[in-house]
Predict the structure.
Amino acid sequence: MSTIELVIAAPFESCPFCAQTALFSSVLAMFIVFAVAMHRNAEAMRAGGTGIVGLQRAGSPAKAHKILTD
């Protein structure tokens, strides 16, 4: 009967430290930008305005401008 060894390594263990740092920094920056964008959208929704989806579905710049001015 043979024994199979299961070796689990960290996913980026073979990458240089500077590459790991750059990847971590870029993912962290992405989450920060996402959180800020979601916070601003939530503020607009609470204020009674339309969110980004409403602006995207406006169909034309004139309709989007009307949504923003209302």
Remarks:
- Residues 41-70 form one domain.
- The radius of gyration is 23 Å.
- The mean pLDDT is 84.
- The CA atoms of residues 1 and 7 lie 19 Å apart.
